[in-house]
Amino acid sequence: MNIKKIGTIFWKTLLYTQRVLMIIAVVGTTLLVFVPLVSREMGRPFAGYEEYLLLFSFWMYMMGSSHGSYEKSQITADLMSRILKGKPRMILNLSATILTFVLGVVFMYWAWALVQWSLMTGAVSSIHKIPIVWGQFSIFAGLLISSIYNFVYMIRDIRDAFVRPVETQAIEEQEVMP
């Protein structure tokens, strides 16, 4: 098996796992908003459902955020990249990608420290005794997945800026021409 096939399998597996986690989190969040409402109306309140809701919401948000990294669909203020063309645009995109990757790694380091702290303290929720680490681990997992995607995009931008600038410039010219 060659390296490209291994990379493709890894990429697809990561994306599939991420989407499954998002679906589970969205369904869980939806149920945890609906079921307590119904149970309260039936006279049997679901005490402490917020603890589960918080857990599912964390996973939903962090997997959605990392999926945004995969799609490159986060909100950006990239006015300059719309104005610039050619090499300056590639350098600007590369700078933004490098900065995004570096900051993601820093935040991932902090998230891992938070997970370690939570494991050491053994913190749990007050009613259902859910380990707090499960919600905090979603932060680390989301940042890890985002960093993987951002690393791949950073390598692609380095390649486009320095290794294949002629091909990239030809593609940009085709985008402008009808």
Task: Walk me through what this model shows.
The structure is a single chain. The chain is mostly helical and 178 residues long. The chain has one domain (3-176). 82% of the residues lie in helices and 0% in strands. Helix 1 (3-41) packs antiparallel against helix 2, helix 2 packs parallel to helix 5 (133-163) and helix 4 (86-121) runs antiparallel to helix 5 (133-163). The longest helix has 39 residues, at 3-41. It is elongated and about 65 Å long. The two termini are 41 Å apart. The mean pLDDT is 86.
Shape descriptor: elongated
Low-confidence stretches: none
Proportion of strand residues: under 5%
Task: Write down the domain tally.
Answer: 1
Report on the biggest sheet.
none
Query: Strand-and-helix sequence, N→C?
Result: HHHHHH
The helix tally amounts to 6
Helix content: over 70%
How far apart the termini lie comes to: 41 Å
Quick check: average pLDDT?
86
Strand pairing plus helix content: what structural class?
mainly alpha
